[in-house]
Amino acid sequence: MSLGNKQIMADNIKRLLSAKGLNPRQLAIALDFKYTTVNDWVNAKTYPRIDKIEMLANFFNVSKSDLVENKNAETPTTSPIQSIYDQLTPPRQEKALTYLKKQLLEQKNENIVSENIISLDDYRESKTLPVIGVVTAGNGITQDDNLNMEKCFYTDEIPDDYDAIAYVVGNSMEPKIKNGDYLFIKNTPQVDYNTIGIFQVDGANYVKKLRQGYLESLNPECADIQLDESNDIRTIGEVVSIYREN
Question: What is the pTM of this model?
Answer without folding.
Answer: 0.61
